Amino acid sequence: MRHPKPLAEIVSTGRYVPSNVVTNDDLAARMDTSDEWIRTRTGIRARRIAPDQEGAAHMGAAAARIALERARVDPGEVDILVLSTATPDRWLPSTACDVQALLGCTNAVAFDIMAACSGFIYGLSMAEGYLAAGRGEVALVVSTEKMSSIVDWNDRSTCVLFGDGAGAAVVKPSNGSGRGILSSHLRSDGNLAQLLWRPAGGALTPLTADVLAKGDHFVRMAGREVFKNAVRSMAEASHAALHDAGLTAADVDLLVPHQANLRIIDATAKYAGIPPEKVFINLDRYGNMSSASIPVALDEAREQGLIGQGANVLTAAFGAGLTWGAMAWRF
Ligand code: UT7
């Protein structure tokens, strides 16, 4: 959606990844796979795996603390805490409420959204709308994923792809300087839910011994179908977001895409007309951290000085739902 001027801006970011690095060779020692297969098919070389005692809330709070400190915002000043996760620590209450408690964001309305890998841009869009409606001055968007807890470690076609981590952003109303969210183009299609899902374990098919034995509570993915949809959807969304922002590909200083597969990223950049040197990639080190991938990448890109003042940044995401979208930001 096009805005005549930005309504909200990202004022700071933060990230947290567990310290435990698991390489492709580590996985190859445990299952029938190889570094060569994983690297050439996906671009992934390693991922972080959280220990048992470290959940989604712990990681999300760690990332959020950094973002809050950088923005010089006290936890009590946060008006809205939107948290995206596909891996809540438990089903009730929300992980957002756990993060709220860990941080001391006592004045915030806190809730989870579930939009899989697109969760960060969905969350940002909700924060933007909340702030634009005048309902608050400070939003905290947190994306945190313990993917290692929901993948089937006996399914080599999915478990090698994912990793754990968290990213966060503090968002405030734009101050008229032209910085902020220039456009957002978000979409979903529930008809394609079964391409990437956890078939059982919820209200319709509760956990039973049979479900557990079959592993139907784990992530299942039709990899090739998801791949094709991802390329098409991210390319279309990127075009739409650029168009709505009044930008061309040449105006983009950096593309910070969702990090699922290097081949998907390359195709998205190619269709969008963005050269490889302007594409930020960290999936080689982290794998696919679902909704945490984009904020972690954004935080690393800022830390590396790749996003200067006035930089135009494009992001695009794709995931279960299906959900997808793109956003253009000016920093
Ligand atoms: O965040 C958004 C959600 N996820 C994605 O965007 C992922 C989208 N999909 C993909 O990235 C790719 O489809 C994959 C990387 C998952 C798979 O790549 P592919 O080129 O589509 O391979 P495939 O699934 O068609 O499998 C090719 C072969 C199969 O063997 P056969 O039947 O050809 O003998 C698989 O059994 O590769 C085999 N295979 C593996 N071999 C070694 C599958 N996983 C592995 C593995 N190690 N880990």
In the CATH hierarchy, what is the superfamily of the largest domain?
A: Thiolase/Chalcone synthase
* CATH topology term of the largest domain: Peroxisomal Thiolase, Chain A, domain 1
The number of helical elements comes to 11
How far apart the termini lie comes to 19 Å
Chain-wise SSE layout:
Layout: E1 8-16, E2 21-23, H1 24-28, H2 35-42, E3 46-48, H3 56-71, E4 80-84, H4 95-103, E5 109-113, H5 119-132, E6 139-146, H6 156-159, E7 164-173, E8 180-188, E9 196-197, H7 209-214, E10 220-221, H8 223-245, E11 254-255, H9 262-272, H10 283-286, H11 293-303, E12 312-319, E13 323-330
Parallel strand pairs: 4-5, 4-6, 11-12
Antiparallel strand pairs: 1-7, 2-3, 6-7, 8-13, 9-10, 12-13
Helix pairs in contact: 3-4, 8-9
The structure holds oxa(dethia)-CoA (UT7).
Oxa(dethia)-CoA is lined by residues 33, 37-38, 41-42, 117, 156-157, 160, 196, 223-224, 226-227, 230, 260-261, 264, 288, 318-319.
